Amino acid sequence: MQIAYILNSYPQPSHSFIRREIRALEAAGHGVTRIAMRPGDTPLVDTQDVEEAAATSYVLRAGAWALLISLVQVVAAGPGRFLAALRLAITCGRRSEVGTLKHLIYLVEAVHVAKLCRAAGATHAHAHFGTNAAAVAMLCEALSGPAYSFTVHGPEEYDAPRALSLGTKVARSKFTVAITSYGRSQLARWAGPDHWHRIKVVHCGVDRARFPDPLPLPDGPPRFVAIGRFVEQKGQLMALDALAGLVKTHPQAHLTLIGDGEMRGEIEARIADLELHTNVTLTGWVDEARILQELQSAHALLMPSFAEGLPMVIMEAMAAGRLVIATYIAGIPELVQEGETGLLVPAGDAAALTHAMQRLADLPADTSARMAAKARTRVLARHDAATEAAKLADLIAR
């Protein structure tokens, strides 16, 4: 099959799961045309992301003149189709917090995307996230472009389902992907029961080749790693508060924060206020090889998020044979089993997070190793990238 992937900004360091999915489809023999509205706004440190950027067509780089020519050609070729797509854009725009003007821009983008899809011979389009990429895919189909599907990750989509016209996007799609059963339930709230059959679960996947037999858990003081954008929902400030509680009994406990973002200044200030300079390392964004290295140096991944879908870093930590301490939200409990493959705590409870870190630090080594082995077995059984990409390909083929 020849599939067009429609994305907003691509690649991004935090979207490695999209790259993995695309490459798994290509490894299975399918052609994938990458189409993004714009490049990512974060510097690329992974060579694989650099390669993806080189392979991606960027709509807004075409320039206003090229977009205008594409628009005129589409209107001339099928005025009826264009008017129907225009009505759809206006209807969705009136419901949306971003407004009608943004949706008219999406329509112009969709015109050019349809042209790129025709040039590539794409027979199906797949978008990631239920935001503007899915809107462009929907409008592209309305303009006689290929049929579309899209993957919803959460949590942003679940914060504004009406504003995003999620119900309309699901109803017009060939199928819609949720990455967890929890995600499927949230989509079912906004898509009428007549459309529930369109909502499928396809997990994000890890590349087994990146995770050979794991190294033994390290000796010494408890070491944790947290990975993600520095934004409110990821809970890094809560992690620091919890660490401050842990160092009272384990003075050499250490937390490595991987990532960057708008809250970096607040995080640095909290580290200073809590006098955790010797207990915390900030790495910035790093490539996948460094992430694996940091996971192997840690006892556990710390994921204190307030809102999530199902983070890829949880899957990667488990595949690396490491335990996970995470909040009991969204799709996380579908993978992380309390007391079996990790520890789960209520979101927003720093004391509970400290207690979980203390529990893990005090676990006998053989118990930790047994739990880590279970975690690895579970994630590789449920989240293999090649298997999940095959599920997606099968849905597209059907």
TrEMBL record:
An annotated Gene Ontology molecular function: glycosyltransferase activity
Database matches in Pfam families: Glycos_transf_1 (PF00534)
Glycosyl transferase family domain: residues covered: 209-377
Domain of life of the organism encoding this protein: Bacteria
The protein's name: Glycosyltransferase family 4 protein
The species this protein was found in: Sulfitobacter albidus
UniProt cross-references to CDD domains, sorted A to Z: GT4_PimA-like (cd03801)
